Amino acid sequence: MEPTSPSAVARLAAVQNHLSIQPCFHRHAIHNDKPTGPADLARERANASFKVEDMTEVILRGKENVEAMSLAYQMIQRDPDLRMREGHHYDLTRAEDREQTMRQIARTIELKKEIKDPRLRHALFMAMAFYSESYSMRMYVHDMLFKQALMLFGTAEQQDKWMDDIENWRVIGCFAMTEMGHSSNLRGLETTSTYDRTTNEFIIHSPTLTATKWWIGMSGETATHTVAICQTVIDGENHGINWFIVPLRDPKTGRLLPGVTCGDIGHKSSRQGLDNGWIQFTSVRIPRENMLMKWASMTSEGEFTPSPNPILSYATLIPERFTILGGSQVILGHALTIAVRYGAVRRQGNQDEQILDYQTHYTSLMPGVAFIYMLNIVDRELFDKWDEVAGFAQTDAGAFMREIPDQHGVSAGFKGTLAWYATEILESCRRACGGHAYSSYNSIAGLIGDYGVVTTGGGDNVVLMQQSARYLITALKWAQEGQELVGSVSYFNNYKKILSSSKTSFQDHRDLLSHEFVVDALTWACAKMTTELAAILTEAGKTNFDEAWNANQTELVRLADVHAWRYFLILYQRGIQREKNTSVYPQLRQMGQLMSTFAIRKHLDLFLEEGYFDGSHAKLIRQLFLDQCKALRKDAVPLIDAWAIPDFVIKAPIGKYDGNIYPAYFATVTAAQKSFDPPAYWHKYAAPLVNAPRPGDEKKNCKC
C-alpha cells in the first residue's frame, strides 16, 4: 500500500475538524439554560477603562441633559400617543405609519406647551428623534427647512407675521425646492413666479411636467404652506431664483386650494411615516408680501432689488447639510449599538471565541465607534460657528457675506465625505451581524433604508464635492492675489511654504499619534492637489474649461474628500479641548488618534503617488491602524453603552442591553406570526401541486 501524502493527511484533518463537535454545540445544545451573552456583556462592562456615565455626560453635554433625556425616554415609553401601541414598527402599513407619526407630532406639540423646563422640551424632541426616523424627518422639514428659510430670507416684519403660527403648528410647512427634472440644481429650476403689476401679486406656475416639485416632505398629505423657490420673472425678464410662501391646503378642511395639486410619492425604501409628495402650481396667485425679502425685495411700486450675492439663495441649505452630523449620530448610534453588542455575545470558532475578537470584525467596527464620537464633538463646533454667522444675517450683513462662502464650502464637503463614510459603516454593521441583520426585526436593514436618501437628498454628494473643490480652487486664487483667508482654507495663506517640502519627516509610528503631524500631512496633500488642479484648469481657459473639469472630476472629488477629513480632524481636536479636564479625555484623544490614522490610510495612495511617503511608511501606517483598532476594541461595549439608547428605542432583540438575545429574538418573530394555520393561498396553489396524481396512479385505482 502506498504511503499517504502529507497534503492528503492535511485535507483529512481539515475535514475531521469541520465534522467534529464544536464548543458552541456543547454550550447551546447541552447547556442552553446558561446563555453566555449576559455574562459576556457584564465582563465587557466590568473591564471598561472609563466610567460610562462620565462619557454619556460628554455626549449629551452635561449631567442635567442626561437626566432630562432619561426622563424623556420614560415619557415616551409610558405615553400611548408617543410609543408603539401594539405590534412591531416594521409591520406597520404605510397608512398606519403616517397616522402614528402625526399622532406623535400632535402629542409632542401638546406636551411642549405644558412642559416648563426648556431642557426637558429639547430632550423630548431628541428622544423622539432617536425613537422614530419618520417623526424626526417630519419635524425637521417643518422646524429646520421651512422655519429656517423664513429666518434667513424673511424680513423682521415677515417673521413677526408668520413665526408664532409656525412655532405652534397653526401653519404646517414644507420646503419646495427640488423638481422632477432638476433635483436640487437651482439654476435649472423651472417653476416661475411672475409679478403682476395690476394686482400687486406674484403668479406661481409649473410650466412643464419636469417643473413638478418632487420629493417634498410633508406635501403629500399634511402641509398647509410651503416655501417654494422659483425663477422670478418681472416684466418678461428673469431675475433669478427667490423664495415665496405659498398656501397649499385649507387649514379647516385639509383640501387643496385652487390651482394647487399635491400628490403622494408612494412607497419608498424607508421612512414610510413621512409623506413625501409632489406639487404642481397652476397660476396660483399670492400677495407680493409673500416673497421673502430680506436680501432681494419688491416694493409696492413694483421696483425690484436683487440679492447682493446669488450664493445667498443657497444659505438655507448650509444648516441643512450640517444636520447630517446629528442625523448620522442617531442612525449610527443605533446600528453600532446592535452590531457591537451582537459581536460581543455571538461566539463561534475552535475556541468558541467572541466574534468581536476577530481582527476582521473589530477593524470593521471600531473606526465607526470612533467616528460617531467625532460627529458628536464636531457637531457642536459647527453649529456654534453657524449660529454666529446666522446671527450676522440679522445684525451685520457685511460679516454674513464674508463668512457665507467658507460655510458653504465646508457644508458641501462635510455632507459628501461624512455621509459617504456613514453608509460604509452601516454596511459594515449589517455584515457584522450576519444573516440576522437581514431581518427587519433587528433594525439594521431599516436603518440602512432610512439613511439611504442622505447621499443624494439635499444635494447629490458628487455634485457637492465638486462645489467644495471649486471653492478650494477659488480660495487658492484669492490667496495668490494677496487676500488674507480665514476658516477652513486659511492654510492657503502659506501655500508656498507648505509646498517647499515634498517628503515627510515621518520617523516612526509615534509621529502619527501627533495631531499636528497628521494635519500637516493632509494640509500638504490639499495644497499640492489644489495647485496642480488649478494650473490644469487655468491652462484650459474658458473655452475648454468644462472639458478640463470633467477630465479631472474624480481628482476634484478626491481633493474635496482630503480637505474635508483634514478640517474634520481639526474641529474634533478643537472640540475635545473643552473636555480636557474630564475623566474621559484620554478615550476621546485615543479615538481621535485612530481616526487620524484612518484618514491617512484612506488617502495612502495619494501620498505614495506623490512620493511623500514610501513603502516602509505605508507598512507602519497599516500596522498602527490594526493596533489602534485592537486597543479600542477593549472598550467597545462601554463606548456604545455611553450613548444610552434604551432597548425599546433600538427595537432590535440581537442588540439587547442584557445580552440575552436569542429568547428575545425568537419571541419577536413568533409574536409577529398571527396564525400557524396554513395560509389561504396554500389551498389554492400549493395543495393542487402536492396532491397531483403520480404516473400510474390511474391504473392502481382502476376498478375494472
Automatic annotation (TrEMBL):
Alphabetical UniProt keywords: FAD, Fatty acid metabolism, Flavoprotein, Lipid metabolism, Oxidoreductase, Peroxisome
Pfam families assigned to the protein according to its UniProt record, in alphabetical order: ACOX, ACOX_C_alpha1, Acyl-CoA_dh_M, Acyl-CoA_ox_N
Segments forming domain Acyl-coenzyme A oxidase N-terminal: 52-172
Positions annotated to bind FAD: T178, G217
Protein location: Peroxisome
MF annotations from Gene Ontology: acyl-CoA oxidase activity; FAD binding; fatty acid binding
Signal peptide segment: none
Cofactor(s) needed: FAD
Keyword Cell division annotated: no
Domain Acyl-CoA oxidase C-terminal: 516-690
Cellular component terms per the entry's GO annotation: peroxisome
Coiled-coil zones: none
Official protein name in the record: Acyl-coenzyme A oxidase
Species of provenance: Dissophora globulifera
